[in-house]
Specification:
The chain has 115 residues and is α+β, with helices and mostly antiparallel strands. The strands form three sheets. Strands 1-5-4 form a three-stranded antiparallel beta sheet, with no helix packed on it. Strands 2-3 form a two-stranded antiparallel sheet. It has a two-stranded antiparallel sheet with strand order 6-7. A hairpin with a 4-residue loop joins strand 6 and strand 7. It is elongated. The protein starts with 9 loop residues before the first strand and ends with a helix.
Amino acid sequence: IMVYGVNKQTEVAYCYNKKENGMFTLDINADDSSTRFLNDPQAEEQNLTREPEGHVCQGGVIFETPKVFQPLTNTRTSGDGTVPYCSLAYPKIWRAEIAAALKKGDNNNNNNNNN
């Protein structure tokens, strides 16, 4: 049984500024009007798996809201206010992997019994 709350605004990312000395600091002035979730061409990895719709930025903190599309469950929802939804729902992946492993094990047992 999995039980968890959902649809609360939940922290999922942060906006940083790179200082001249190479250090990063939280951009407390970042908000929805100054942040557009664009790829950083200098970033090493540019794999954005989430669309910006439903995210809000306040004081440099990016939150998911109930409007965020969650590909794991093909729904629009958000976390419980502390843990992002993708982490809360991760046991659904485990359940699918366990079911696949059990099915594979059953197939292997059936093949062995037929020999």
